[in-house]
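Researcher: Sequence recovery benchmark, item below. Answer with residues only.
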């Protein structure tokens, strides 16, 4: 079956539009590569692990269990992605500076790359959850609807990339990438809902709210910490390492503290999944 989706075409479209500016492709792709590092673990791993379980439930006509399992998986991955986004956005500059700066890659290059990376991180939850929604279709043996919708969305998104690039330059391309994956993910969720396969109402909104609160608190805490750390205004590699270490520890502590105080079940779920075989 032929078809393309934003998931596979995004990098190609980005490089096509960014190829005319000196250094634009390099900075944009460095940012995208750094963004895909946690995404490569968070999204595909969770989706691949869930696919056999979803397929088993659907093949046995346990449609209610299938829908509830998909919604639990989406809720869980959205919750984790929201908190990871807070860390990645807050620590964007020291991360980029430590990993890429050196040689011909200057501080100005690092500043722009960190900006693009920060924009990309805002779509982490979308990239991760779309992998679950896609596999929900695959588990039901329905590959045509998501592929057809994805192809249409990709075709319609190209003018969006062009328009935002013309208006805002490379920053516009980063935002166009986020908007395209937003449209793609929401479309998959709506298709599942309208086909009475997976109801949008089945998402655990209280759990998502707790994770969003943890993300907001941890982001604020790490941002304040970075302002008081040495070398915060003139980045150095030792300063970057200190910022990432201290910021990462503070982020983890604040996230866990907020989740614990709000009675979130997410930590227990993650611990259970780490000790058991991947299913729901």
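Model:
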């Amino acid at each position: 079956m032929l078809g393309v989706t934003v998931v596979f075409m995004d990098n190609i479209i980005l490089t096509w539009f960014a190829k005319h500016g000196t250094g634009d492709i390099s900075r944009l792709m460095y940012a995208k590569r750094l963004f895909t590092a946690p995404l490569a673990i968070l999204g595909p791993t969770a989706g691949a692990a869930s696919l056999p379980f979803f397929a088993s439930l659907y093949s046995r006509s346990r449609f209610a269990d299938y829908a509830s399992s998909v919604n639990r998986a989406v809720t869980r991955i959205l919750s984790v992605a929201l908190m990871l986004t807070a860390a990645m956005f807050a620590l964007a500059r020291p991360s980029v500076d430590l990993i890429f700066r050196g040689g011909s890659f200057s501080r100005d290059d690092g500043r722009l790359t960190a900006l693009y990376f920060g924009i990309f991180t805002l779509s982490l939850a979308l990239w991760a959850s779309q992998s679950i929604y896609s596999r929900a279709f695959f588990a039901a043996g329905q590959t045509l609807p998501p592929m057809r919708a994805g192809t249409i969305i990709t075709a319609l998104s190209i003018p969006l990339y062009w328009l935002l690039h013309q208006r805002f330059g490379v920053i516009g391309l980063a935002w166009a990438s986020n908007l395209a994956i937003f449209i793609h993910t929401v479309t998959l969720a709506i298709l599942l809902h309208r086909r009475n396969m997976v109801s949008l109402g089945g998402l655990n909104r209280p759990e998502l709210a707790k994770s969003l609160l943890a993300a907001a608190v941890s982001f604020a805490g790490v941002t304040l910490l970075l302002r008081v750390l040495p070398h915060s205004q003139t980045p150095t590699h030792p300063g970057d390492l200190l910022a990432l270490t201290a910021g990462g520890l503070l982020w983890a502590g604040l996230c866990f503290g907020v989740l614990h105080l709000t009675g979130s079940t997410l930590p227990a779920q993650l611990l259970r999944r780490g000790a058991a075989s991947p299913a729901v």
